[in-house]
Amino acid sequence: MTALTGRQARRRYLVLHGLRWLPIGFLIPVLTLLLLERGLTLPEIGLVAAAQGLVVLALELPTGGLADALGRKPVLVAAGLINLGSLILFVVADSVVLFFLTFVLMGIFRALDSGPLESWYVDAALAADPDAPIERGLSGGGVVLGICLGAGALASGGLVALGPVGPVSALTLPVVVAIAFEIVALIALLLLLVEVRPTGGVGTLRGSLRAVPGVIGGAFGLLRRSRIVLALVAVELFWGFGMVTFEVLFPVRLAEVLGNPERAAALLGPTASAAWLASAGGAAAIAYASRWLGVPLSAALLRILQGATVVGMALLAGPAGIIAAYLFCYAVHGASNPMHMGLLHRQVDGPYRNSVVSLNSMVAQPAGALGGVLLTALAGATTVSTAMLVGAVVLAAAAPLYLPAWWAARRPSGASPTDRPDLVRQRGATQDRPLESGSPSLG
Questions:
Q1: Disordered: where is this region (predicted)?
Q2: Looking at residue 423, what is its pLDDT?
Q3: How confident is the model at residue 425, as a pLDDT?
Q4: Which residues contact 391 (CB under 8 A, 6 or more apart)?
Q5: Burial of 429 (0-12, 13-18, 19+ CB in 10 A)
Q6: CA distance 338 to 329
């Protein structure tokens, strides 16, 4: 099979990335409010949402290793099917137990989905051109993500405003539409993601499963050897915890200010749409701004700025003020991710790439679960604003963890011997297996 060019890989990545996030856009404005409508309290929402983070914690590394060993495409297809099942269950769930099962399925989906598509793009782009500017594709992914989430959120708000359709409530209708788009995303994945890997049926599958522990061990070995990778992964502890402020608490804060949950739900559609468009703008702008500041310094400053935007959401009195702070928060959010992931990808090579990305995501998910439990409990015991202020401090506290990457970039060689990816790969070959071998061929 003919290998893809770097441009072909980037285009397919952007299409598939957009379709992966479009269904999520329909859920963003209604998720928390729908759970409240079905009778859950804020602490119960925090607990059922924590199930997702705990499942990711248990499965993130095995599924990341499986994607590296077996191939990205089969893992992504399995993830899509499980997400489809979780959305169907979400439509009919009406109790804490059923919502708990829904979030367990979402956790399995997130564990399987975490990294394979991005890793496929980076490997394909570097295979076509070892000096390919992967940050450009990753920033483009942020732009597409923002546009698709914004479009989905805007459409979701419109569906809520239309009111119930037959037995389907206004807040449930966007979930039904999300199911249809998830089916479209699965079909596109089967058609567009081209991956060459060994074939051999059950024997190949068994061999891939046996290779998973070695791949995971290699990823942990890189984490031990590189203080840059260790610091970057640690950033996710703070980021995952703090994101609860604008993903879970903001809708409650807006409903609190407006005094009407349904009015808040209708307003959240266009607000979330504008937020994700702001995210797309942030992702596009940072690709140029980071040329002057440098990637590590840009990433650190963005963490501090994001904490400041959450303070605005917590303290500003009127809906216009907190919505403006929310929009700025998402612009920073969109700019932060390509900077962080670009730094991470530069530290790791092909066969362990998805496992290291999974490590990065693994710590974010349980941190988010912990944040969901603690911050929602704090909001119930005190005020939503108090909980958001705590989350803002945690978000900003991650900034110093980018210093190792900044120090390495300032050295004449660009990196210390323990942090240069090429030397890390050579060391890894003596402890685990050569990092250059065993990766799936990409076509």
A1: 412-443
A2: 35
A3: 37
A4: 241, 242, 243, 244, 245, 249, 310, 371, 375
A5: middle
A6: 15
Instruction: Quote the pLDDT of residue 282.
Output: 87
What the block records as the tokens of 231 is 């610091």
H, E, C per residue of 158-197: HHHHHCCECCECCCCHHHHHHHHHHHHHHHHHHHHCCCCC
CA gyration radius, the chain = 21
Smallest CA-to-CA distance from 406 within 283, 305, 306, 293 is with 293
Fold type of domain 6-431: Growth Hormone; Chain: A; (1.20.1250)
| CA distance linking residue 363 with residue 306, whole number of Å | 20
CA angle at 56 for the pair 55 and 61, rounded to the nearest 5°: 120
Q: How far apart are CA 175 and CA 185, in angstroms?
A: 15
Domain ranges across the chain? 6-431
Q: Measure the CA–CA gap between 249 and 421, rounded to whole angstroms.
A: 39
- Residue 165: phi and psi, rounded to 5, are -120, 105
Q: What is the mean pLDDT of each run of 10 residues along the chain (443 residues)?
A: 75 92 87 86 83 78 70 89 95 90 92 83 82 76 83 85 83 93 94 67 55 62 74 88 90 85 74 82 77 80 94 89 93 86 73 67 77 90 94 94 81 45 34 26 27
* Crossing angle of the two packed helices 319-345 and 295-315, in degrees rounded to 10: 160
* Torsions phi, psi for 99 (to 5 deg): -70, -35
Q: Is the dihedral of CA 145, 147, 151, 154 positive or negative?
A: positive
